């Protein structure tokens, strides 16, 4: 009885559950670059290069390990442009009588796969994705009966489960679960940020770059200066580079934003973790080891581990708990379209221009740019969650629905009514001024709230606060904002609202 083992573009892990019980003499691995997956969103060109090249390298490695691999390279004229069509063709060609795959990461594809046994007429075995630390049912059990979910408490459970940064007597290393209060420094150029890890494109990657330039020219971004790792070995080298050069300062400057440095002290590992080239638990263990051996301080290591063990696992749990309804949530009733400058970077708001331009060049922006710049602006401007989610899904090399959607719809847009986050991350220009050096070179003046030169974030912030009084005034974490707003004179409030409305009418011109 021969099986087809389907491996998806974000399942490039040699210990993948679908391979576990497979027989390399009998079974055939199927991997395919298909139009349906490459085009369900306007994927950044660098994400396409990363995935196609990493898929090709992975297929080669499987073949070298003795597997038979059917690998379809992308071509617009291929007769089979969906995974289902490729599998149908392979079933006919091989007479295989079963498909085995590991559960996929997106609801969209999950729905299709659940119909394959009927549509293709063979059983489809879906193995659990063991590359996450929490199982889906484990998360659902933890979430049961809770009105709101808080990452911090889930994170502590994960610390206990894995023993990461835990002492032998079950208490957190360093005496605290969380060192976030130490992690809010502004970066003023010192210590210098390390150069990001880079791999020069090999022949396979160069071929893929040419393919993407030829056939995906209308997709967002550029293939220029592609330097991501595309193999597990190189992704491992990227991890070592991060631990040696960036991790020691990761905590201190975790929330910083720079006008000149795209990557600061971030790890740039999400593209690799999310497509399977790095194992999240192994990444956390390597970081913990750096603390035990005195190579990085606890605030950095704990802060980094929390992002993966806490946030990454938490958002994945929420996604599978609440889909498909979650994607339709819009509790703040937003109706505005996404301003076009999200695609061009063509805006005089320097922070927005810088974040979007880095995104266009790198298929990367760090967390605070995503949350407090492009995300914050969409929240303040009242952009439809679906529109801003589509943008985030398209523009980053690490973007997959399971991780993008809760981050954007829940964390940034508060469109789930606060299920994921206790308060919206709305902020005026003052926050961006405090955490970055953008404002000094901006067309707008961060100290002004009304007038043609006023920083748009300022009046839009107060407009947001004012228009959502019914949603937030009773939130204990927001009372201070309402008190500050109500303390201002009626004239001042009216002026701010009028100015914000003027801006909202001409967002495209900002
Ligand atoms: P680092 O800052 O070095 O953090 C280390 C690791 O922690 C990351 O590699 C990532 O695996 C994990 N991590 C950190 N924060 C989060 C988080 N909030 N959710 C999940 N994992 C996290 N992350 C994605 O992987 N894909 C996305 O599509 C994505 N979209 C986002 C959209 C918005 C609006 C926001 C606010 C955050 C989003 N994130 C997403 C989370 C986070 O911004 C990225 O994981 C991070 O910027 C990746 O860069 P890094 O590897 O240098 O991360
Ligand atoms: C993201 C992506 C892209 C761009 N292309 C492919 C592809 O051609 N073939 C494939 O198997 N997977 C691809 N992927 C990853 C899938 O879209 C991903 O597996 C699902 O979205 C589930 O997370």
3D architecture notes:
It is a single chain. By secondary structure, the protein is mainly alpha-helical. The chain folds into three domains: 3-127, HUPs (Rossmann fold, 3-Layer(aba) Sandwich), CATH 3.40.50.620; 136-194 and 246-318, Serine Threonine Protein Phosphatase 5, Tetratricopeptide repeat; 341-509, DNA Cyclobutane Dipyrimidine Photolyase, subunit A, domain 3 (Orthogonal Bundle). It has helices spanning 17-20, 35-39, 45-64, 83-94, 107-120, 136-143, 151-162, 203-215, 232-245, 247-250, 270-275, 280-292, 298-322, 341-344, 350-362, 367-381, 385-395, 401-412, 429-435, 456-467, 469-472, 479-487, 490-505, and strands spanning 3-6, 28-32, 68-72, 98-102, 124-127. Strands 3-2-1-4-5 form a five-stranded parallel beta sheet, with helices on both faces. Strand 4, helix 5 (107-120) and strand 5 (124-127) form a beta-alpha-beta unit. It is globular and about 80 Å long. The N and C termini lie far apart (63 Å). 47% of the residues are buried. Residues 266-270, 273-274, 304, 307-308, 311-312, 315, 366-367, 370-371, 375, 392, 396, 398-399, 403-404, 407-408, 411-412 line the site of flavin-adenine dinucleotide.
């Amino acid at each position: 009885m021969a099986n087809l083992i389907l491996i998806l573009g974000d399942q490039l892990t040699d210990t993948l559950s679908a391979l576990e019980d497979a027989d390399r003499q009998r079974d055939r691995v199927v991997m395919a670059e298909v139009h349906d997956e490459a085009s369900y969103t306007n994927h950044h060109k660098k994400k396409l290069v990363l995935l196609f090249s990493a898929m090709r390298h992975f297929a080669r490695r499987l073949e070298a390990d003795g597997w038979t691999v059917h690998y379809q390279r992308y071509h617009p004229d291929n007769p089979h442009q969906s995974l289902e069509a490729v599998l149908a063709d392979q079933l006919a060609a091989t007479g295989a009588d079963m498909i085995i795959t590991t559960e996929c990461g997106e609801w969209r594809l999950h729905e299709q796969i659940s119909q394959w046994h009927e549509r293709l007429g063979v059983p489809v075995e879906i193995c659990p994705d063991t590359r996450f630390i929490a199982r889906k049912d484990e998360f659902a059990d933890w979430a049961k009966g809770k009105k709101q979910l808080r990452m911090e408490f889930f994170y502590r459970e994960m610390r206990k489960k894995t023993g990461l940064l835990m002492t032998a007597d079950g208490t957190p290393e360093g005496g605290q679960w969380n060192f976030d209060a130490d992690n809010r420094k502004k970066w003023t150029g010192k210590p210098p940020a390390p150069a990001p890890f880079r791999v020069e494109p090999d022949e396979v990657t160069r071929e893929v770059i040419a393919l993407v330039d030829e056939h995906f020219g209308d997709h967002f971004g550029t293939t220029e200066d592609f330097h991501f790792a595309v193999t597990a070995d190189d992704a491992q080298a990227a991890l070592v580079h991060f631990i040696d050069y960036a991790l020691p300062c990761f905590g201190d400057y975790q929330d910083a934003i720079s006008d000149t440095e795209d990557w600061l002290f971030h790890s740039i590992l999400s593209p690799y973790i999310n497509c399977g080239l790095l194992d999240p638990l192994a990444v956390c263990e390597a970081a913990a080891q750096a603390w035990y051996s005195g190579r990085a301080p606890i605030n950095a290591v704990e802060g980094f581990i929390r992002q993966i063990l806490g946030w990454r696992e938490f958002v994945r749990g929420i996604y599978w708990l609440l889909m498909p309804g979650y994607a339709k949530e819009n509790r703040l009733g937003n109706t505005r379209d996404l301003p076009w400058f999200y695609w061009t970077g063509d805006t005089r708001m320097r922070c927005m221009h810088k974040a979007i331009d880095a995104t266009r060049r790198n298929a990367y922006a760090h967390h605070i740019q995503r949350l407090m710049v492009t995300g914050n602006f969409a929240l303040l401007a009242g952009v439809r969650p679906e529109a801003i989610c589509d943008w985030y899904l398209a523009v980053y090399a690490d973007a997959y629905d399971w991780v993008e959607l809760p981050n954007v719809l829940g964390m940034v847009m508060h469109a789930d009514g606060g299920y994921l986050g206790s308060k919206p991350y709305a902020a005026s220009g003052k926050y961006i001024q405090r955490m970055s050096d953008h404002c000094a070179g901006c067309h707008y003046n961060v100290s002004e709230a009304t007038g043609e030169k006023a920083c748009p974030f300022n009046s839009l912030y107060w407009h947001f606060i004012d228009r959502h009084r019914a949603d937030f005034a009773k939130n204990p974490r927001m009372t201070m904002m309402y008190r500050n707003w109500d303390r201002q004179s009626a004239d001042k409030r009216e002026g701010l609202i009028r100015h914000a409305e003027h801006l909202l009418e001409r967002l495209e011109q900002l």
